[in-house]
Amino acid sequence: MRTLDTDELVKPDMQAVLSRTHLAVELHDFLLPTFEAVSNAMHGIEAQYEQEAKRLGKIHIHFTNPTDPTKFKITVTDNGIGLNDENYKSFKTPFSGYKLKEHGRGFGRFIAFKVFARTVYWSQYAFFTEYKSRSFRFDISQEKEFAYLNDNIDFEFTGVRVEHDQPLTPWHDLIRSLNVEDVADAIGSHFLPYFLYRWLPSITIQFDDAAPEDITSHFNSVFVQSDSGQIDCEVDGSTETLHYSITKIPKTRTFKNHCLLFSAADRIVGAPRDLTNKLGQPHFVDEADKRYIVLAVVRSPAFETRLNDARTGLNIPIKTIEKIVTKISDVIQVNENSQIDKIKRDQTYSLGEALRENPILRIGLKGRSVGEYVASKPNNWSAEEFISDLAIERFRASSDLTRAITKAANNPVDYQNRIQELVSKLDANKKDALAEYVLHRKSVIELVEAARKFKEDTKRAPEDVIHELVFRRFTDNKSLDYFEHNLWLIDDALAFLPYISSDRTMHGGGRKKGDKITDIAFFDDSMVLGDNDGTTITIVEFKKPSRDDYAFGNSKSDPVLQVIDTLDQAVAKGGISKTDGTHFSFAGVIRRFAFIVADHTPSLVKVFQRHDFKNDWNPKIFFRYRDNEQIFIQAFGYDTLVENAKKRNQAFFSVLLGE
């Protein structure tokens, strides 16, 4: 086969690659070029000294003019193998195979240009029996990125010195606040995996002419592995083995809360995951009354292939990260069981105190002890969160009870016996719920009795007060819970209809000319043998107590016409807009009901008589089925409303209150 002409790849546009890399203006990202230089230095030291690298290797980090951005410079000097021909060739090759073998990306040296405008490399290496030097300014903004220097190098050994200066403007404020403690902590944190399960050479850090600090010795005594092991976790559909190491260290300004760190290529990548919510406290307190935190480092070969190019994070789904956080937190809780027990004891005590003030919330425990309930909830919950949760559980328990009561109420013949039977089967907690339920209803009835006697003033009419007691105005049951209304005053069954709207237009917006707004409207989808055969509409209209200016045939003063007009408009609209923005359709209406709640004054009685209403089976209740509109209307006064509500609840009052 004849060979054709050949061509070569164009080298990567590193400026374009770098422009897509984002760094946060904070200490960790500012130090990324330093971390990269230290990492490369360790590779050079290991190549030079092999098994003796830990004992003989030295890395010195020097900050010059550390709080003056205009003169600021960082140098990282090592005594490794230096930039010999092989290393220099790798340096010149972006994304080199050599770096991949070292679990790197070959991109790290470029990250310096996100922080500094100038980077210089000084190097001395052995060539047979003599030393050679190679020094240059590295600048990816130039067509020829390497500008060689002729300055004499002051090395007495092989190695590399990296100089970063001329920091970019966004970093100036951060530089002005630099201090050696924070920098040392950041370096120690970044290379935490080395302290826990690998090795480090001697690393010193120096600010200007101050004495160098040996951070390796310092953190070797701090970062002592207290536990290690492995967990399995699914990552992108595959089950991966993750190795973890755990250490306990004193709480400091930098290390101030329990956290999980992810390690790739033996370096921390991404932001720490705060474990405070999982463990319940940001720190623990030991027997000597000293605060300490737990740090966990998790690593896996799966992480190596999921590093982003800037090595600042892992390309792993958030849900997977959260699963790892949960599993590591579970390990820590087992190790720190005495601390977790203390948290649970404190929570149990706080909740116990709160329940003494709100004993009815014990219903939400559902037969569990306070300790058992607390054990099942997050470690970081306060008494307020427990109370909120118990309130919800209590409502659920009470809701179940309410449904049982409503079922019993459907048997009027032996209603009292059924209520007695229901109460006898209740446990102590549910009896408390029933007692609260009954007392609530008794209080509401008393409020209605008081409200109907209000004298009208400029603020609130009595019918508005009663309306609010029954169901809050301008709302619907999308925004109100069962326990926030008192529809049982009219009829217990109304509370369980699918959709209830109070004082709202059909279109859900502000009132427009011609809109009919009923006080309360109920809409019920009817299902027969699984098919939707239509919809029931129930309308409730409240009128001012003792009002006596009604007039037949006048849409403003004839409540019968008012409910009929509202019904017509509702049917014409074909549905109603809910407060959550969705739509409730009631096409094909086949059942229509209305309640008019108004005192039976002479003028209202005349209106009912003109509309051919009857009250022969109960003088206090007028009713009529209107054939043309196919609507059944009941009308009764506030006295009757209260009287009937009392009758429906008398069984409760008798059984539980002795009335």
How does the SSE layout of this entry go?
Blueprint: H1 14-19, H2 27-30, H3 32-49, H4 53-56, E1 58-64, E2 73-78, H5 85-91, H6 97-101, E3 116-127, E4 130-138, E5 146-148, E6 159-167, H7 172-176, H8 180-190, H9 192-197, E7 202-207, E8 213-214, H10 215-222, E9 225-235, E10 238-250, E11 259-264, E12 267-274, H11 276-279, E13 284-285, E14 291-299, H12 301-304, H13 318-335, H14 337-357, H15 370-375, H16 383-409, H17 415-425, H18 428-451, H19 462-470, E15 475-476, E16 499-502, E17 520-528, E18 531-542, H20 559-573, E19 575-577, E20 583-585, E21 589-597, H21 602-610, E22 621-626, E23 631-636, H22 638-657
Parallel strand pairs: 1-7, 11-14, 18-21, 21-23
Antiparallel strand pairs: 1-2, 2-6, 3-4, 3-6, 4-5, 7-8, 9-10, 10-14, 11-12, 13-14, 15-16, 16-17, 17-18, 19-20, 22-23
Helix pairs in contact: 13-14, 14-16, 16-17, 16-18, 17-22, 18-19, 18-22
Properties at a glance:
659 residues, 4 domains, alpha+beta, 37% helix, 8-stranded mixed β-sheet, elongated, 7-stranded mixed β-sheet, Heat Shock Protein 90
Describe the model.
- With 659 residues, this protein is of the alpha+beta class.
- It has 4 domains: 9-221, Histidine kinase-like ATPase, C-terminal domain (Heat Shock Protein 90, 2-Layer Sandwich); 224-335; 337-402 and 428-451, no CATH class; 453-650, no CATH class.
- The chain is 37% helix and 24% strand.
- It is built from 22 helices and 23 strands.
- The chain has an 8-stranded mixed sheet.
- Helix 13 crosses helix 14 (337-357), helix 14 crosses helix 16 (383-409) and helix 16 packs across helix 18.
- It is elongated and about 125 Å long.
- It starts with 13 loop residues before the first helix and ends with a helix.
- Mean pLDDT is 80; it is low at 97-105 and 525-534.
